[in-house]
Amino acid sequence: MSDRSSDETASDRVARYVDEHASDDGFSDMPGVGFPGGSSLEKEIQVDTEKLEKNLSNADPNTSRRFITAVILANVGLLAVSLSLMLIVFRSSFDVGGVLLLVGLLALGRTYQQVKSHRRYVEKKNESEPETDAEEQSNTPAEHNG
């Protein structure tokens, strides 16, 4: 400690050590470090984001709405059922636990109804469009043979 001044704090010593031993070499190609020019990872993320936005804009709004509703209901149902069982088993709180169990089971039941409803929607949609698929399949072998 004789070579250091008494005014130097621990943070000053750390800063001096970092200045002496750290260099930009080896870190310039790391993603997310913030060096100018960006990185290949940032470019890949940008491309993936653009693809996702395009796919989401092309999605059927009815399917998107049903999916989001089913996810929210499933999460609420699982949380409520789990919490209710813990309240009933560990705290013997049958009143609050029973209400949460009922809410959770209703949410999970509604999730099941959403899934069944969506399957019927998809089946109806597929039944109304088989003519185009059959025409494409009948034309495809003729193109390969001729």
TrEMBL record:
The chain crosses the membrane at residues 67-90, 96-112. The keyword RNA-binding does not apply. This is DUF7322 domain-containing protein. Residues 137-146 have a biased composition (Polar residues). Residues 118-146 are annotated as: Disordered. Residues 57-115 form the DUF7322 domain. The keyword Membrane applies. InterPro entries: DUF7322 (IPR055746). Coiled coil: none annotated. Keywords: Membrane, Transmembrane, Transmembrane helix.
